[in-house]
Write a structure and sequence with these properties.
With 199 residues, this protein is mainly α. It has eleven helices and no strands. The protein has one domain: Hypothetical protein af1432. The termini are far apart.
Length: 199
């Protein structure tokens, strides 16, 4: 499936506002890929399809989770707003023909992040929060960072995600905690002993 076919299929499956958001993330992902040295074609597809599972009904989500039991663990099921990300990786593979592991990883981790985020993962994670349709406290700071330093932008994006969930008394997915701890460990050059856990 080429990019035009992907756009048409996605447009037919998502609500207009969600489709416009997807186009915004796509554009921002390509811009950041050009700036920070990532593959722009991969960034285009990952940005475009990152929310491709947002159209699924509860029954469809349940069916996919039963068909692929490794998609989501119990915590992911409890943190329902993040479920569309791992489901999206499956939909991108099965319905859009995406097989590139970098693209699928970026889609899978665009809501929670994780401890070992690669370049494209970070770009999609940040682009999802900074695309032009986003409007929330802190987005302007994120956008400034996303034009200058990806690592700073990524750190701030994870920080804002954590604070947002804490203020709402919401569950925080363990992958997001792992992502934050990984950032701090790398920034402070903390050495873990063999067998140590991030948490």
């Amino acid at each position: 499936m080429d990019k035009e076919q992907m756009r048409e299929k996605l447009k037919g499956s998502l609500k207009h506002k969600r489709y416009e958001h997807s186009l915004g993330v796509c554009a921002e992902s390509v811009r950041m890929a050009e700036l920070f040295g990532a593959d722009t074609e991969k960034a285009y597809i990952a940005g475009l399809l990152h929310d491709c599972a947002k159209c699924l009904s509860h029954d469809e989500e349940t069916e996919l989770c039963e068909k692929y039991p490794d998609i989501a663990d119990q915590m992911t099921m409890l943190c329902h707003p993040v479920l569309h990300a791992p489901l999206g990786a499956v939909v991108a593979r099965d319905e859009y023909g995406v097989t590139d592991p970098d693209i699928l990883s970026a889609i899978r981790h665009h809501t929670t992040a994780c401890a070992d985020m690669k370049l494209l993962d970070k770009i999609i994670y940040v682009a999802d929060m900074t695309e032009s349709h986003r409007d929330f406290d802190g987005v302007d700071k994120l956008r400034r960072l996303a034009h200058d330093d990806l690592e700073d932008a990524y750190k701030e994006a994870v920080r804002q995600t954590l604070l947002h969930n804490i203020k709402k008394d919401s569950l925080i997915h363990p992958d997001t905690l792992d992502a934050w701890n990984s950032i701090i460990i790398n920034n402070k050059d903390i050495k873990l002993n063999k067998g140590d856990s991030l948490l």
